[in-house]
Amino acid sequence: MSSFPYSDKYPVNYEFPENGKDPSAVLEILSEISAEEDAFWETGKCSGTMYCGDHEHYDFLNQAFGMFAHVNALQRDMCPGVTKFESEIISMTLNMLNAKEIKGTTPAGLVTSGGSGSIAHAILAYREHARKNLGIKNPNVIKPETAHPAFDKACHLFDVDIKIAPVDENEFKVDTAWVDQNIDENTVAVIGSACNYGYGTIDPIGDLSDIALSHNIGLHVDGCLGGFILPFGQQLGYDIETFDFRIPGVTTISADTHKYGYALKGTSVLSFRDKDLRNSQYFYLTGWSGGKYCSPGMEGSRSAGLIAATWASMVKLGASGYRKYAEQIFKTAEAMKNVVRSHKELRILGNPSFLFSFTSDEFDIYHINDFMKQIGWRFNGQQYPNAIHMAVTRPQTQPGVVEAFENDLGLAVQYAKEHKDEAPFSGAIYGGVAGGMTTEADDVIKMFMAEMMDEFQQVPPLD
User: Fold this and answer.
1) What residue ranges define each of the domains in the chain, with the CATH number in brackets?
2) Residue 270: helix, strand or coil by DSSP?
3) pTM of the full predicted structure?
4) Residues 307, 267 contacting (CB under 8 angstroms)
5) How many Å apart are CA 21 and CA 14, to the nearest integer?
């Protein structure tokens, strides 16, 4: 991919233009690019990424953001409204995660810049709390192999050792016996996912809680993906394991408002069972010539616009709105899983919820991706084993999307069977379509589609 996309359509600004453009001309360029790129996911064929997909809701959030876009959340004396918004975001999230069940401590939270931000702040909190209270100078944490790479990144940044626990090859849940056996005197926390990104499965949080309590260490539940949909699925009666603060050993939970919270990109909530753990990662510098400095998180300046828009989303939708969208998503996910199950050549991995991953024992699953990509689908890719997944969001709940998936997947299976002795063109890359495509791949798949069209045209019309 070029570092300067659209260079064939718009001039490239390698340096500041001497004279600025007319505002209407700037907005015209933005509008054209936005419309072209939105058209890709509006079809409902894109896994994850666009969790809301409702332009009216986006317009509402943009209005809320615009009112506070110029405001720095650092200056609370000038902007007490931001304190209101942030406090209520945290309170609503804590109650959603059943923090009211906690006895004897004071639950607290932190609004961060996203899932990686929440995970990083959790690792930092465990490190600092262990240093100050337990004298642990070389801490380590244990995470399942399926847990998000943001944990590895946070441990790298904060000089915390990380142990990778294996997962069950059938259920894709962490091996709790391995976790228990590998905790040592420097382990400060263990991690479980609800749900994990790759397979949509939930780790046995109750068992991890028992282990954490027996060793007197923390338990972080990564609900970045599922935190704002699984609770409402539980309320609707879906069979979803308990993962929140009702489990006594859970000490922190990350949950992304910018995913199934339907807020703008760039916000997440890190919830703490007790404010003492949260406070341990505060940064203080009292002797600076510029004044006493205190930061609740890594960021100094923060966008009040994002905080206001997140609050607006949560208050506008309310619990009933989240339940309604959760029900649509769970129903759609089950319908799409049934489409996959209808093909004996395909196999769903584990027991997923709204996100499902599937593979094949008859051919490399990336043949499916090769074909589906050419007709507008965008899946996420896994490896070990090769698999692709669909994170069902609101765009998939549109009429006709499940039917399109059924039709297109059938053609893709036929293509994969015919090309099973060849190497696929795509592969597993996080954060983008499941691998790129070569010109050769385009030609092969277009030829197959042309042959299929010829066959269809030879079928006599039904009476």
Assistant:
1) 73-302 (3.40.640.10), 319-453 (3.90.1150.10)
2) strand
3) 0.91
4) yes
5) 15
DSSP E strands: which ranges in 256-296? 268-272, 283-285, 293-295
Find, among 81, 156, 134, 124, the residue nearest to 307 by Cα: 81
Distance of alpha carbon 426 from alpha carbon 442, whole angstroms = 12
381 beta partners: 388
Q: Which long-range contacts (CB under 8 A, 24 or more apart) does 2-6 make?
A: 6/33
Segment (H or E) for 388: strand 387-391
Tens of pLDDT along the chain (463 residues) come to 678 999 999 999 999 999 999 999 999 999 999 999 999 999 999 999 999 999 999 999 999 999 999 999 988 888 899 999 999 999 999 999 999 888 899 999 999 999 999 999 999 999 999 999 999 999 999 999 999 999 999 999 999 999 999 999 999 999 999 999 999 999 999 999 999 999 999 999 999 999 999 999 999 999 999 999 999 999 999 999 999 999 999 999 999 999 999 999 999 999 999 999 999 989 989 999 999 998 888 999 999 999 999 999 999 999 999 999 999 999 999 999 999 999 999 999 999 999 999 999 999 999 999 999 999 999 999 999 999 999 999 999 999 999 999 999 999 999 999 999 999 987 655 455 555 555 565 566 666 666 655 554 444 443 3
Sort 16 into a burial class: Cβ within 10 Å, 0-12 / 13-18 / 19+.
Answer: exposed
- Find the Cα–Cα–Cα–Cα dihedral 284, 287, 289, 295, rounded to 10°: 0
Write out the DSSP string of 115-164.
HHHHHHHHHHHHHHHHHHHH--SS-EEEEETTS-HHHHHHHHHTT-EEEE
In order of 165, 167, 176, 270, the CA distances from 162 in angstroms are 10, 16, 16, 20
Q: Please tell me the distance from the alpha carbon of residue 311 to that of residue 308, in angstroms, as a whole number.
A: 5
Compute the distance between CA of residue 387 and CA of residue 364 in angstroms, rounded to an integer: 8
Alpha-carbon torsion (24, 29, 35, 37), positive or negative: negative
Q: In terms of Cα–Cα distance, which of 73, 190, 185 is closest to 136?
A: 185
First to last CA, the chain: 49
H/E stretch holding 321 reads: helix 304-341
Q: Could you tell me where the DSSP H helices lie in 375-400?
A: none
Place of tokens 């944990």: 151
- Positive or negative CA dihedral for 194, 195, 197, 201? positive
Rounded CA-CA distance 322/329 in Å is 11
The 8-class DSSP code of residue 269 comes to E
> What's the chain's Rg over C-alpha atoms?
24
